[in-house]
Amino acid sequence: MADKKNTKQLFWYNIALLAFVSVWGLGNVVNNFAQEGLVVVVSWILIMVLYFVPYTLMVGQMGATFKDAEGGVSSWIKEVSTKRLAYFAAWTYWVVHVPYLAQKPQAILIAGSWLFQGNGNFVNISSKIVQSLCLVIFLLFLYLASRGITTLNRIGTIAGMSMFIMSLLFIVLGLSAPAMTGSAIATANMNHLSTYVPKFDFKYFTTISMLVFAVGGSEKISPYVNKTKDPAKNFPKGMIALAIMVVVSALMGSFAMGMIFDAKHIPADLMANGAYVAFQRLGNFYHVGNALMVIYAIANTMATIAALAVSIDAPLRILLDDADPKFVPKALRKKSSDGVPVNGYILTGILVSIIIIIPALGISGTNNLYNWLLNLNSVVMPLRYLWVFLAFMLLNKHLDKFHSDYMFVKNGKVGFAIGLWCFVFTAFACILGMVPKVVYAANPSSWWFQLALNIAMPIFLIGLGFILPAIAKRQHEELN
């Protein structure tokens, strides 16, 4: 009894903080401000109410229902559906990390540029040269990950907490700068309501995927449901607290961005260099030079390196460690004497190399390439959220078969409708997110090239998942 009591130690505020650190970051503020300007304030409110809150509460119910599931979303799908669908959920979870892995070397190089040069001129270098460097960096980390680099987990934790602190510091210093230092507010009419009202046109809807990308991923905290004291009460309270913390951070961070950058004239390199420029300007306001920018660059470099190493290994092991031989060929499941999925690493290397090299052939300029790859991530990464909503819909079809200490909604039809809404909204955001964010008239050939890649990449990555079961089936038939 004592052991059981000790495992239920988390309260709602512990859950909120754990989730906040894993879900939120300054990059979410910078990237969405870069795409929408100050109208993102209203966008944040809408996305939190209509999407983020129900999403997190669904995760709470799924986590509480399947307490012993170790495979995350794929385990949920296996419980409510079939092993085949569970395989596709695991495949999706892994394969959406491929563009993410391709983008991380860029982030390392940009952070290094600010750290050693003190500026963001790196984004003006030829994209072919930069992508060649990115390929070398990625292959190096692929090799290191295959050798096992567990010390990076600790470094990543420290760097992650440092990034979290810097994000909060940015908000505090940014909002107080005009009063404390007398610095001018960069955006005019910040006291006018019209400054924050979006124009709900086609262009606006193409930016929603970045918002979805920013607030997704709360399923990572589902294992903590069963470690929460009185989960039916504390977990939803923690999720609501998380939503409040995220929306306050998003709103305050966006206001701070508006004070530092002119929302009506957003720099083209804001996604790549915005956070560094912001800390550099804050350092000048508070007369500490580049100190804040350097601290942020160091923290971001370490956090990115750790994320790159961990994201090479962890999603792949989720796919392969519990792989069903009916769907994953023997060759891909092969492990070395050290337990390293050798061929899985090779497949990762091939796919990431393709995404690093091919875009550089048709997208000129490192900044354009950085923006494109970040937007591709906002299209591809949310595809894994679809499985969360599908699992929730299927669960609500069979509520009588499953018990949960926490219920988001007790009515199966209502629960199914909420899950369907989030599923459709995510798909809608991903599809419209494929539209390139560059001006068509400025470079029509580049626009069409980016659109083709944005459509082809998700189809290619998800489509590969259909090949493996066919190979596995053929192997099974040959053995029999």
If you had to describe this structure to a student in words, what would you say it looks like?
- This protein is mostly helical.
- It is globular, with a radius of gyration of 23 Å.
- The chain has 20 helices and no strands.
- The model is unreliable at 1-5 (pLDDT under 50).
- Helices cover 71% and strands 0% of the residues.
Layout of helices and strands:
Blueprint: H1 2-7, H2 12-23, H3 26-36, H4 40-65, H5 73-80, H6 83-95, H7 97-117, H8 127-147, H9 151-181, H10 202-205, H11 208-215, H12 231-260, H13 270-285, H14 291-320, H15 330-333, H16 342-357, H17 366-380, H18 385-397, H19 412-433, H20 444-479
For the sheet with most strands, the description reads:
none
Share of helical residues? over 70%
Which spans have pLDDT < 50 for at least 5 consecutive residues? 1-5
Q: How many helical elements?
A: 20
Shape: globular
Ends apart, CA distance between termini: 50 Å
Strand content: under 5%
Helix-strand topology string = HHHHHHHHHHHHHHHHHHHH
Q: Which structural class fits the helix and strand makeup?
A: mainly alpha
Average of the residue pLDDT scores: 87
Radius of gyration: 23 Å
Tally of DSSP β-strands = 0
Subcellular location: Cell membrane
Keywords: Cell membrane, Membrane, Transmembrane, Transmembrane helix, Transport
Membrane topology: Multi-pass membrane protein
Transmembrane segments: 12-31, 37-57, 122-145, 157-180, 200-218, 239-261, 291-310, 342-363, 369-395, 416-435, 447-472
